[in-house]
Structures are given as C-alpha cells and as structure tokens.
Amino acid sequence: KIVSVVFVIFCVLPTTLTAVMQIDDWAEVDYSLSSLPAVFQQFIDLDLKGKVFPAGNYTDSPYMAASFTIPDQSDSMLYLAFSEYFFQTSSFAYYTTGAFNMTIAEETCSYFNINTEIFGSIIPEVIKYSVTPYPVMLKLMSTEIPIISLQQDSFTLEVQGSVEVLAVLPDSTTQSLFTLNIAANTSISLNIFDKKLMGSLCLNR
C-alpha cells in the first residue's frame, strides 16, 4: 500500500517540472525528472537529468545524453549511478565560467615559495631577463574543455592547458618570463578501502 501511494504522488508530478540546485559559485545542476518513475515490486527507479550548466546561464552543452543501465543487484537499499553525460556537462560548465583558470602567488598560497633564481637554474634564459631574484607568479589556464571518459573500472581525464610564469617586480608589476603548454592524459581509479573512498591516479602521457 505504501508503494502504491508513492506511485500516485509521483504520477501527479509533471515531468517538465524543473528542479535546479546551485552547486557552487560556478555551476548549477538540473536534476528534473526525465521520465515518470518506474515502480516495481521491490524497488523504485528514478531517472533524473543530471545536467550541469554555468551558474545563472542555462545554456545547451555540446554533449548528448546516452541511456545506460545499472547492473541488477539487490543487496543494498540505495544505488546511485552517474552517467558520462553528467561529468561531461560538469566539465563544460566549469570551463565556460573560467573555474579552471587560476593564479598562484606567494600571497595566496603559504606553500608557494619559488623565485626566478630557481627557474634560472633550470632554464638559463630566465637569468637574462631577471638577474636579481624576484618572486614568481603562475597563471594556470585551461585552453580546451577537459574530456572525461568513463571506463569499466576507472575513468580517463584529458586536459589541455597552459602555465604562464611571471616575475613579480619591486613595483608590484609583472613581467612574463615564459609559457608552458600542457597536454595530459590520466586514468583515475576509485576503490573503497577501510570504509573510505580512495582514488589512484596514473599519468598515461
């Protein structure tokens, strides 16, 4: 009887009802029902959109949602499944809002203590532009939308970006020293160990 009552309540809800929640200052998620709930004898199946978009800007993403199935298991009360589409739209939203772009300086990071002398020992050309040791600032920027692909027991992340190294001069102005372009492909595996969710990162290239 309880299941029947729940089913009636869900049936009167329109599937076009928009349910949006703000994740942070950068993104929001649309978790509206994509179809009417399917009620079975032992469980209820809810299909939610799971689309992430830039905060305050509900725009279309370049990705298409694909259907997927959850393995038939019955030893837990609740199962959650996140599609590749969820991670792809998340990546698009954060890239669009510039969340992947950041500046690292000594004032903003207590562990950051690098100067031009250190870079000069690695790249001699730096000494020509900065004989006196000056603090440096790093500007990190994502140049392409990070690509996330789900695998059987892990997922891969492809990142393309750049790192600009600038010298901070005594008058608080900056001088660009050099820029590094980065393209990385990594694999990330998640496992539960001692009741904790643990991740392992492997750099493929």
**Percentage of residues in strands:** 25-35%
CATH superfamily of the largest domain: Bactericidal permeability-increasing protein, domain 2
Number of helices: 4
Elements, N to C (H/E): HEEEEEHEHHEEEEE
Q: Provide mean pLDDT, rounded.
A: 82
Helix-residue proportion = 10-25%
CATH class of the largest domain: Alpha Beta
Count of folded domains? 2
* Distance between the amino and carboxyl termini: 56 Å
What spatial form do the alpha-carbon principal axes imply?
elongated
Low-confidence stretches: 1-13
What profile does the largest beta sheet have? Answer: 6 strands, antiparallel
Secondary-structure-derived class: alpha+beta
Q: What is the strand tally?
A: 11
CATH topology of the largest domain: Bactericidal permeability-increasing protein, domain 2
How much is the radius of gyration in Å?
24 Å
In CATH, the architecture of the largest domain is Super Roll
Task: Explain the layout of strands and helices.
Elements: H1 2-11, E1 20-22, E2 27-30, E3 38-39, E4 44-45, E5 51-54, H2 84-96, E6 102-104, H3 116-122, H4 125-129, E7 136-142, E8 147-150, E9 155-168, E10 174-193, E11 196-203
Antiparallel strand pairs: 1-2, 2-5, 3-4, 6-7, 7-9, 8-9, 9-10, 10-11
Keywords: Antibiotic, Antimicrobial, Disulfide bond, Glycoprotein, Immunity, Innate immunity, Secreted, Signal
Organism: Brachypodius melanocephalos
GO molecular function: lipid binding
